[in-house]
Amino acid sequence: MAELSNAKLAARIADEAGRMLLVMRESGMLEGRALGDAGDKTANQFICHSLRAHRPDDGLLSEESKDTLERLDKSGVWIIDPVDGTREYGEGRSDWAVHIGYCEGGKPVAGAVALPGLDGGIVLDSDTVTPLPELPSTPRLVVSRSRPAREAVAVAEAIGGELLPMGSAGAKAMAVVRGEAEIYLHSGGQYEWDSCAPVAVALAHGLHCSRIDGEPLVYNQRDTYLPDLLICRKEWAERVLTEVAKLVST
């Protein structure tokens, strides 16, 4: 049997991790924060073990594992978030995700995002690309459920957009990929594992991905903090970046 591509390997592992997480939640043995913590730990162990078994020479960076800087010397590095949206997972919501991304030279070149909480479970990967739908007349911006980014709120007002509150970063990014929204603008602070896999999938689908000042997103850095992110339809990229620049200059 032919070896799986990095994207398909990520998709398979993310899908299996997502099914495992659902079984844990549906058992009813834990709930809330305790469930989220247990899910993070269990999924992380499974994903890390699977990646090391299939790609032993690659580097690895996970939110739930102690970082070892040997990854900086690797040509290929896996960046994972076992449960993105731990709170939503613990609350029994559907807007959480499993992220498995792969970068080379700081660029996210492959990855998968599983959305196990949706009906039947969904996995999107950078090898399986579906056409983007036609743009609606009113742009939709996905934002945090509790802390919508100031820039996102201002941009929505400037372009006549609609705000859609949602949980995890992966769920928000995949809402744009799936045509449920057109813009995901975040400025409240993130880390590489929050966006690597979503950006890999979004780029494969022809979306614009950058920092909110238009600078490129660079991964596998010594400092893993990536404070802001823009994933959007290319038709809206220039306008959104212009509106954000206006906010910075005032």
Automatic annotation (TrEMBL):
Gene Ontology BP annotations: 3'-phosphoadenosine 5'-phosphosulfate metabolic process; sulfate assimilation
Molecular function, one GO term: metal ion binding
Cofactor needs: Mg(2+)
Residues noted as binding Mg(2+) in the record, renumbered to the chain: E63, D81, D84, D194
Keywords, ordered alphabetically: Magnesium, Metal-binding
InterPro entries: CysQ/Inositol_MonoPase (IPR050725), Inositol_monophosphatase-like (IPR000760)
Record protein name field: Inositol phosphatase
